[in-house]
Amino acid sequence: MPIRVLQIVTYMGRGGLETMLMNYYRHIDRHKVQFDFLVHRDFEADYDREILALGGRIYHISRLIPWSASYKRELKNFFRSHPEYRIVHVHQDCLSSVALQCAKECGIPVRIAHSHSSNAVKNIKYPIKAYYKTQIVKYATHFWACGAQAGNWMFNGKKYEIVRNAIDIEKYQYALNIRQQIRSIFHLQRSLIVGHVGNFTPAKNHVFLIDIFAEIKKIRPDAKLLLVGGGEGMTAIQQKVEKLGLKDSVIFTGVRPDVNRLLQAMDVFVFPSLYEGLPVTMVEAQAAGLPCVISDKVPDECIVTEGLVTVQKLSDSAENWAKHVVSRANMQRKDTGEQIKAHGFDIAENAKWLEEFYLKHG
Fold first, then answer.
1. Which stretches in the chain have pLDDT values below 50?
2. Of 333, 338, 186, nearest to 264 (Cα)?
3. pTM of the entire structure?
């Protein structure tokens, strides 16, 4: 019988941390280690059916309200009624301390806090998140992060382990036939394709991305923008696109299971984020041989190839961004697999490490 590890998440949509988790889940030996998921939404998410097909279980719990006594009681009741879980792996950003505290009080011996970001939105909820972030070090037994900036931000000087946002490199390798297929499906054969992958959250900075693209259109009238992702913020961006008269030039694909194929169709990847942990989409884009233009707020740890990625200051104008993006768009695509593997982002090797960790501590 495999040991079972409880992954605690918001829900298993196609976001960055969820995609990372699924990459590991697909590549571990599931005869030895199985993932189960405790989720905080009551709808079926993108990865749910695949999880069930791989032998995982999905449990639903109320939405996380960190100060709620009833939420904590529900969580503790779950832990006590499922004594098979000796490892909980928590992916709830600053609020991870709530589940970690309940797990500790229920006697769960291995409690992993995993940081996937290097900042948080400075809204009305930020002081609450900042407080609960300080509590993580009290309750976790292991501290993991996708990169150094994410670990430094989350763990207040505590020693942590970097767990790579690794990918199946071969799946993203550039293929001309796939490029032609995707460009044909979207009627983009004679266009300059600017691409972006990311859900519509404030951190991804889609507002500025649209401003950049409006300037790109002045230089290259044939340009199209391919936006891959979903989320509540998409409607506002669609409205901005329409207001600027760009509706016929911007394609909203929604959430897609074939990001590896869509990357083949792009000519340049633009990533003007306000902050990131270590974006798996940047590793994927480089694996596809795409030239990338990123903001100076994206950790340079994500640069895992030579010559493909350039950094632009977020404070720079949309016009200057546009000039730089267009100048990068005609690079010849190359196989970057060995470079990415050399930087430690091969999923087979990383999944073996994770599997051995779970087996040792479970």
1. none
2. 333
3. 0.93
